[in-house]
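Section 5: illustrative case.
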């Protein structure tokens, strides 16, 4: 096997390990809000917080994860993240212990979700650094695309399975399974070789964030629609007495993964901004359809469009981030870039939950559509500036 083929094979194993690990996020994603709403005194705001708080710890750990991947290598960073994923899921499983009152259950669940965010940061940033080191910067778009395909492939499969497993066996069994899958991923990557680190100066993290600010703002606005769909689409179906509460997540995830495999080469070939602009327009259309949908079939169509739109925004804009920084800061810059998306994920859960309490679940998707529209406007301005500078 030649070097290029071997590198792509290694990248495929990394993506499979990430798929297994991200099941620890995807399996409980739809189940946690449903579980929390069954505890006395807990409403949509606290249910959304239980989902979104993991993204806040991810934000706070992005800089550390980026520094670890840049200075020590993506391999130790990702392997550490996989172990943290397993530990976090075990803590969440303790929330199902009999005899705990609702306050203690919620506190344990929040602790586990916070640690889960750290595991996510280390695992994803580690894979990006490790994967780009294996296949080269010229294929950075492919690494970003495969990373997202693994994550949201897990999202598509894990959402409905997790909701069904919770309904049949409870939160403890669900979180126990979530703890085992990252360890299987750890075994899968054990023999993949490490990649060299890059020497060079390291500007302050805040300087890096300033360099990628508008790209980060665009990906954050994209993330609002994704977070709203992940946390509240099953509840919208349940509240409207529509069948197939988990199918919306499957539609989203299927379209998302298909978009990554079909269009994953486009940012490297035609430029990230062009791909991101079209993607945000499609996402906005899907969110507006979810907002206005009078039937479950139209809601599923909105979820499908949202998945197709969300699919390529992160890798498309991520290619632009990689082009702006030196190789020695690549993982740190990508970690900072991802932190913008994490901020959107973390804030959307509780804020959209409060909005749902006041205005109903449909309005949450109107908010997602407006944010995607604003993101498209930012990308359009960046594209115009890029053309003016060419």
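Designed sequence:
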């Amino acid at each position: 096997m030649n070097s290029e083929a071997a590198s792509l094979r290694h990248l495929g194993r990394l993506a499979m390990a990430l798929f297994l690990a991200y099941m620890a996020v995807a399996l409980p994603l739809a189940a946690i809000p449903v579980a929390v709403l069954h505890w006395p005194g807990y409403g949509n705001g606290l249910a959304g917080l239980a989902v979104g708080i993991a993204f806040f710890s991810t934000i706070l750990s992005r800089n550390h994860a980026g520094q670890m991947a840049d200075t020590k290598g993506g391999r130790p960073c990702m392997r550490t993240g996989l172990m943290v994923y397993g530990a976090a899921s075990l803590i969440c499983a303790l929330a199902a212990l009999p005899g705990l009152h609702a306050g203690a259950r919620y506190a344990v669940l929040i602790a586990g979700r916070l640690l889960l965010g750290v595991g996510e940061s280390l695992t994803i940033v580690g894979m990006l650094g490790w994967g780009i080191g294996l296949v080269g910067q010229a294929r950075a778009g492919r690494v970003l695309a495969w990373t997202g395909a693994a994550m949201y492939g897990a999202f598509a499969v894990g959402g409905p399975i997790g909701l069904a497993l919770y309904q049949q066996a409870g939160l403890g069994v669900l979180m126990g399974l979530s703890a085992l899958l990252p360890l299987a991923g750890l075994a899968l990557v054990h023999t993949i070789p490490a990649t060299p680190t890059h020497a060079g100066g390291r500007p302050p993290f805040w300087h890096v964030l300033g360099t990628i600010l508008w790209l980060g703002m665009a990906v954050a606005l994209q993330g609002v629609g994704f977070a709203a769909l992940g946390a509240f689409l099953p509840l919208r179906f349940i509240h409207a007495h529509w069948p197939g509460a988990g199918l919306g997540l499957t539609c989203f995830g299927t379209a998302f993964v298909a978009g990554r495999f079909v269009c994953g080469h486009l940012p490297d070939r035609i430029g990230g901004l062009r791909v991101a602009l079209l993607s945000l327009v499609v996402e906005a259309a899907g969110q507006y359809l979810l907002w206005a949908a009078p039937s479950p079939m139209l809601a599923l169509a909105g979820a499908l469009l949202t998945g197709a739109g969300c699919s390529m925004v992160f890798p498309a804009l991520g290619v632009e981030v990689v082009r702006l920084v030196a190789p020695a800061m690549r993982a740190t810059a990508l970690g900072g870039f991802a932190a913008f998306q994490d901020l959107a994920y973390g804030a959307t859960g509780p804020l959209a939950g409060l909005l749902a309490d006041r205005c109903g679940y449909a309005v949450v998707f109107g908010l997602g559509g407006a944010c995607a529209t604003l993101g498209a406007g930012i990308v359009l301005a960046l594209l115009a500036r890029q053309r003016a500078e060419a």
